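> call design_seq(struct)
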């Protein structure tokens, strides 16, 4: 009997070890991607960024590119909205059809990551925290004809249209304040609710780049952006402590011109040179291949989330997962 009860105890322990925590497929697989606007790879590597360093120490950091194939079918302007759209859809401008920041007519035939996640399982909580309203209403196309019938479950955006709470000033202090507000809301919501997929978009760095070019004010804005990443990372760590498996991706949408650092939009090496930092240790060979591009983020996050895009959508993606 003693032996039998030990055997039973052993079985119980064995089953306990196969609880969700030890069983990767059963734990929630969440992701948050953070886009810091307009920070060239050489700048992020030169400025002190302790939060990004901590995230990269858990996973990795690598240079990446935007702009598609130089001179080819997929060449895409190194402009903000085309960059966001390449991240969101894993396609370049020849498909997603966003080539500038205004007067857009996105081709919603190429599904964005939120549409894929919501179509796969509408019960998964999706969230957008953004200093630019159009990211949700135009690029993601929530509620638009042809963009799919789905809802972002939690949206924090549009503050740039609230000129009472955030009066516009020529030095873009209001954008700094909105970035702080968006970050605070993102960190609070992630810590409390653990949404399946979140996008945090922060703009202030690009405004400082345009205004000052390379130099102290721009680098200070990059450090402030890193501190915001740190607040979101702290929220993620609280969810990890609950046994959830989180993938954090931090990236940018374009570099800046080599001469002044004020402009972007062209196809010079520095405008095309971006970067990706992630906490996931499950990195594959693509991550350090030197071939990493912004279109690789969506397939990587979907793989992490155990979500399979419809074949007709997956077939059109120009990126590949950088996970093992
Ligand atoms: Zn930008």
């Amino acid at each position: 009997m003693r032996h039998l009860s030990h055997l039973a105890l052993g079985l119980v322990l064995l089953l306990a070890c196969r609880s969700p925590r030890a069983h990767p497929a059963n734990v929630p697989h969440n992701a948050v991607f953070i886009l810091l606007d307009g920070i060239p790879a050489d700048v992020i590597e030169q400025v002190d960024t302790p939060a990004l360093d901590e995230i990269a120490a858990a996973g990795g950091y690598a240079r990446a590119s935007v702009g598609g194939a130089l001179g080819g079918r997929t060449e895409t302007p190194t402009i903000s909205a085309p960059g966001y759209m390449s991240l969101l859809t894993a396609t370049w401008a020849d498909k997603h059809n966003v080539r500038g920041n205004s007067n857009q007519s996105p081709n919603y035939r190429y599904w964005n990551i939120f549409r894929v996640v919501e179509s796969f399982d509408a019960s998964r909580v999706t969230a957008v925290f953004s200093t630019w309203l159009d990211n949700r209403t135009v690029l993601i196309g929530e509620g638009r004809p042809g963009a799919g019938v789905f809802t972002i479950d939690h949206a924090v955006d549009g503050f740039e249209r609230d000129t009472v709470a955030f009066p516009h000033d020529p030095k873009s202090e209001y954008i700094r304040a909105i970035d702080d507000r968006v970050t605070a809301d993102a960190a609070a919501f992630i810590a409390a609710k653990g949404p399946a997929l979140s996008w945090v978009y922060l703009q202030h760095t690009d405004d400082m780049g345009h205004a000052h070019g390379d130099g102290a004010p721009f680098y200070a804005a990059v450090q402030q952006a890193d501190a915001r990443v740190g607040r979101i990372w702290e929220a993620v760590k609280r969810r990890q402590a609950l046994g959830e498996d989180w993938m954090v991706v931090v990236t940018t949408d374009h570099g800046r011109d080599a001469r002044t650092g004020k402009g972007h939009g062209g196809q010079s090496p520095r405008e095309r040179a971006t970067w990706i930092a992630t906490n996931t240790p499950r990195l594959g060979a693509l991550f350090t291949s030197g071939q990493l591009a912004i279109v690789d983020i969506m397939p990587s996050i979907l793989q992490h989330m155990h979500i399979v895009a419809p074949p007709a959508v997956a077939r059109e993606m120009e990126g590949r997962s950088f996970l093992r």
